[in-house]
Design a protein that fits this description.
Subcellular location: Cell inner membrane; Cell membrane
Membrane topology: Peripheral membrane protein; Multi-pass membrane protein
Family: Belongs to the ABC transporter superfamily. Belongs to the binding-protein-dependent transport system permease family.
CATH topology of one domain: MetI-like fold
Number of helices: 22
Largest sheet: 8 strands, mixed
CATH class of one domain: Mainly Alpha
Radius of gyration: 35 Å
Oligomer: single chain
Structural class: alpha/beta
Strand content: 5-15%
Protein name: Peptide ABC transporter permease
Shape: elongated
Organism: Pseudooceanicola atlanticus
Bound molecules: adenosine-5'-diphosphate, magnesium ion
CATH architecture of one domain: Orthogonal Bundle
């Protein structure tokens, strides 16, 4: 089980678990141990020092055996603390879930009540409760549980509010499920980890609080021993016979330390966000762990990738998202990168500027050169200077890339001022000019609106304007039109086309749509399972694709005015990149494949302008004419 593994990997938590297990075991077997009766007094034998015969830890002011009292006291303190924690968790969670789930007035009334309880110092409140109920261990337990209920209620309500409006809860309501059922089957499973975490971090606290009440004489009553009352009774002999205080004191220290260490470990191991590594701060640039020399570039251009390899290392698994990808773009050229979803297009694009999140991403080899400068493994400062200034990105979802609380003008200004020392006013003028350049009507006015006030097409134009803000030489566009409708898509493509002609921009255009490639790109590279399977000039590839996969991708695009034609979906799914088969990754879905296709490595072979990774290409590439 991963939970236990994670817990044991955390050394402090493991130590806490071992100590706690020992203490619990001792507490459980106390009645069968050969201990003297803890409550029998023997005044002639008062204050015997520890390590004397018959009394390993000595005796107290009434001559009772301290070891026996310690064992029975620990047993009692643990039982009361744990019981209080369970009560507080159950009642607190119930209150929190009801308040968070029903919201509105119910929430208001319940939470104001909880706030009132929280306004009292907790120990004062506990004292008041015990005073009202009368001293005794059961009442101390009730008091400690009661003062901790608000803590649980607040915590759980917060989590519940976040869940109660999620789509799956709405779906359950629409399906006609009752409130109780929704709470039990939809909400509760989501908050249980939080309850367990809150419990594991508060049990120690509750044991201390119970001990505190007993210390004041309000908890366990003589002659019954618990850790708190032992401390209380030893108080008068603190100076003359310190061992009577030290014995229970050390035990409390050990228990609370062990529980807290264990609790922290449980929290870290249970929290799904911590577990997936999402809360580990990603490094500012992708980790680079080369397994081979930096390869010499074989092509020229503004951006040249050679044998780029990017992997994700998750636990023992290695996902080979990008395997030996080589690409290049010349100034003013547009290169299309095409492939099904999951073929490694985005990871290739993000690797160039070190934008793949690490962990888990690792670049394990290859080179990416911008204008003779190696980017893979370049120092972070250098990458930072190039990002957005020389090489800019346009992402698929502009709503996710724009900040919701700033106007688009401000965000454009920020992009400019990161790389250029210009005044706010100059930056603003430039921002407006950029918006005009991407054909946003009434640019002065639109610069002052927030992202949510714009349409999807407008927002994507803002994304393009931002990419253009610092006059980059290379733009990497990762499916910039996938979320848009076709008319807006056509406008955006025309815009990018004009820009590259005007400015001599190199564009790497990622898409899964051959129609888009045909409109915009000079050359195209087809990716499958992290590898390039075919490259060549767009027209040549479209007219006469060599790789069976490319053929099938092209066959998926409907053609207007060509009469009725059956569209051929590609059967099956791309392989998982952590278990890539030998040979051609497309073989299982290819009707031309035979046994030869499933062994060894199949190389990308070509004639200088075109290349294909296939032993049985659909068309023979002509000998190099150049
Ligand atoms: P696309 O071609 O659709 O842009 P991506 O480049 O996003 O595909 O993804 C390529 C592969 O990398 C996919 O198979 C995906 O499963 C894998 N991948 C992406 N991110 C992670 C991650 N954080 N952990 C493990 N695998 C990942
Ligand atoms: Mg993608």
């Amino acid at each position: 089980m991963t939970f236990l593994k994670l817990l044991i990997r955390n050394r402090l938590a493991a130590a806490g678990a071992v100590v706690m297990a020992l203490v619990l075991l001792l507490a459980l077997i106390t009645p069968i141990l050969p201990l003297p009766d803890p409550d029998v007094t023997n005044t002639s034998n008062r204050f015997v020092k520890p390590f004397s015969e018959g009394h390993l830890l000595g005796t107290d002011h009434l001559g009772r055996d301290l070891l026996a009292r310690l064992m029975y006291g620990t047993r009692l303190s643990l039982a009361v603390g744990i019981a209080a924690a369970i009560f507080a968790a159950i009642f607190g969670a119930a209150i929190g879930i009801i308040a968070g789930y029903f919201g509105g007035k119910t929430d208001n009334i319940i939470m104001r009540g909880v706030d009132m309880l929280m306004a009292f110092p907790y120990i004062l409140l506990a004292l008041a409760i015990v005073a009202a109920l009368g001293p005794g261990l059961t009442n101390a337990l009730i008091a400690v549980a009661a003062v901790n209920i608000p803590f649980f209620a607040r915590n759980i309500r917060g989590v519940t509010v976040g869940i109660a409006h999620k789509e799956f809860v709405d779906a359950a309501k629409l399906a006609g499920e009752g409130h109780l059922r929704i709470i039990l089957t939809e909400i509760l499973p989501n908050v249980i980890p939080v309850i367990v975490i809150a419990m594991s971090t508060t049990i120690g606290w509750m044991i201390l609080e119970t001990a505190g009440l007993s210390f004041l004489g309000l908890g366990s009553q003589p002659p019954q021993a618990d850790l708190g009352s032992m401390l209380g009774e030893a108080r008068s002999a603190l100076i003359t016979n310190p061992h009577t205080s030290i014995v229970p004191g050390v035990m409390i220290l050990i228990i609370v330390m062990a529980i807290n260490l264990l609790g922290d470990g449980v929290r870290d191991a249970l929290d799904p966000r911590l577990r997936s590594g999402a809360l580990t701060r990603p490094r500012p640039s992708t980790a680079v762990a080369r397994t081979s020399e930096i390869p010499k570039p074989r092509e020229t251009g503004t951006m040249v990738l050679t044998d780029l390899e990017t992997q994700f290392h998750v636990g023992q698994r290695v996902y080979k998202a990008v395997s030996k990808v080589s690409l290049h773009v010349e100034p003013g050229e547009c290169l299309g990168v095409i492939g099904e979803s999951g073929s490694g297009k985005s990871v290739t694009a993000l690797s160039i500027m070190g934008l793949v999140a690490s962990p888990p991403g690792v670049i394990t080899g290859g080179s990416a050169r911008y204008d003779e400068t190696e980017l893979i493994g370049a120092p972070y400062e250098k990458l930072r200077r190039y990002r957005g200034d020389k090489v800019a990105y346009i992402f698929q979802d502009p709503l996710a890339t724009l900040h919701p609380l700033y106007t688009v003008g401000d965000q454009l200004c920020e992009a400019i001022r990161v790389h250029h020392k210009v005044s706010k006013k100059e930056a603003w003028q430039r921002a407006v000019a950029l918006l005009k350049q991407v054909r946003i009507p009434n640019a002065e006015g639109r610069a002052k609106v927030y992202p949510h006030e714009m349409s999807g097409g407008m927002r994507q134009r803002v994304g393009i304007a931002m990419a253009l803000a610092n006059d980059p030489d290379v733009i990497i566009a990762d499916e910039p039109t996938t979320a848009l409708d076709v008319t807006v898509q056509a406008q955006i493509l025309a815009l990018l086309n004009d820009l590259r002609k005007e400015r001599g921009l190199s564009i790497i255009f990622i898409t899964h749509d051959f129609g888009v490639v045909a409109q915009l790109c000079d050359r195209v590279a087809v990716m499958y399972a992290g590898r390039i399977v075919e490259t060549g000039p767009t027209q040549a590839v479209l007219d006469d694709a060599a790789h069976p996969y490319t053929r099938r991708l092209i066959a998926c695009v409907p053609e207007l005015g060509e009469g009725r034609r059956e569209l051929h979906a590609i059967p099956g799914l791309p392989p998982a990149v952590d278990k890539l088969p030998a040979g051609c990754a497309f073989a299982p879905r290819c009707d031309k494949a035979d046994a030869l296709c499933q062994v060894g490595t199949i190389e990308l072979e070509g004639n200088g302008t075109r290349a294909v990774r296939c032993i049985f290409p659909e068309t023979k590439l002509s000998e190099d004419v150049a």
